[in-house]
Amino acid sequence: MATGELLLERRRSGLPMVFLDRPAPVPEIDSVTTDNRAGACAAVTHLAACGHRRIAFLGDLHSIWTAAERERGYLEGLAAARIPVDRGLIIRGSGEIPPGGGGAP
Question: Is residue 50 part of a domain?
């Protein structure tokens, strides 16, 4: 059974279910999301309006819906500000959280 079908079966059996921060795989299940794309675009537009021209994107794996939406917004913001895309300023994480203290000096 596919994931969407299994979730839908569980939902129809009465299990309360809401997806958070990403769309549900089937329209019959509710989800609560933010507009990641518009937010990233607004951030880039604001920075550009303040005179910044080298604006980096720090994101997660492109396969993660929220990360992909944010990157789309980043690119749209650059385009709106007529700032050329510098692929060297686009940095994606591995999608993994390092073991405790991995980011500490």
Answer: yes
